[in-house]
Design a protein that fits this description.
The structure holds two protein chains of two kinds. Chain A is mostly helical. Helix content of chain A is about 80%, strand content about 0%. Chain B is about 50% helix and about 15% strand. Chain B has four helices and two strands; from the N terminus they run H-H-H-E-E-H. In chain B, helix 1 crosses helix 2 and helix 1 crosses helix 4. Classes of the chains: A mainly alpha, B alpha+beta. At the A-B interface, helix 2 and helix 3 of A face helix 2, helix 3, strand 1 and strand 2 of B.
Chain lengths: ~150, ~110
């Protein structure tokens, strides 16, 4: 559970910082640890970077998604559920954007591959009407694979 | 130390903790040393942000230790004062002591 907390709130944090928090966790209650992890995230500027990445990455893909969807609805007459809701799409888009910002941080601020993957994800979502949750799950899988590769999770 | 590079209050506390802890100065021990002696619940993120700044100024240096089980197999990063750091700390403490000397605490406020 703590590993997930570190991975979500302190992506890309140094090994010694996570090790220190892990050591402190042995002698402090969970709330103390949560508070210190949140504060450490703020000091590491992860939250700020995540907010900036989200603002950058969510804007254009979201607009593109809605335009692609509108285009798809007019061009593909045999779609099974052309009446999927905007709210569902928006929720999926926000979830993907959050994960995107997170992964951008994980990859050390390398925007291009993450932005490309995000655009592709949005395009697939809009054109195929795939359930957003599946797309998010696929993206989450990729993020977990990245974390595993970096040794943040076992 | 060049003008404008005066130590901040928290930087001073961190350097004092390093001076006290010697070879055993790493994130947790530094945080605890300051918390116990000042009564402030210091955050480890603040400690590392300051240590990184001090290292960039050449006032501290660091080296990685061995991984331990209680830390989930992660290594410690040990910090120590450099010669410049010790000098800056001494200068800062002298200035502080000079300002405090002879102060009439009863007449304040």
């Amino acid at each position: 559970m703590r590993r997930i907390l570190y991975a979500i709130l302190l992506p890309g944090a140094s090994e010694h910082l996570i090790g220190d928090l892990e050591e402190e966790a042995q002698s402090h209650p969970p709330f103390w640890l949560l508070r210190h992890v949140l504060l450490a995230a703020a000091y590491q500027a992860n939250l700020l970077e995540t907010a900036a990445a989200t603002a950058f990455l969510v804007g254009i893909p979201l607009l593109v998604t809605f335009e692609l969807r509108r285009f798809a609805l007019t061009m593909i007459p045999f779609r099974e559920s052309a009446d999927f809701s905007n709210l569902s799409l928006l929720t999926g888009a926000l979830a993907i954007a959050t994960l995107t910002a997170w992964e951008t941080r994980l990859l050390g601020g390398r925007w291009l591959p993450v932005a490309g993957a995000t655009a592709l994800t949005f395009a697939i979502t809009a054109l195929t009407n795939a359930p957003a949750v599946l797309t998010v799950a696929a993206f989450l899988g990729g993020s977990l694979a990245t974390l595993h590769r970096r040794g943040n999770i076992a | 130390m060049p003008k404008g590079d005066a130590l901040g209050g928290f930087e001073q506390l961190i350097l004092l903790a390093l001076a006290r802890l010697g070879e055993e100065a790493y994130g947790v021990s530094i945080r605890k040393e300051i918390s116990v002696r000042t009564g402030r619940d210091v955050n480890i993120g603040a400690v590392y942000a300051t240590l990184d700044r001090l290292e960039a100024k050449g006032l501290t240096s660091s080296q990685t230790g061995e991984p331990t089980a209680e830390r989930g197999g992660r290594a410690k990063r040990y910090f120590r004062l450099t010669g410049a750091g010790a000098g800056a700390l001494e200068e800062s403490c002298r200035a502080f002591a000079g300002m405090v000397k002879g102060l009439n605490w009863g007449g304040l406020g």
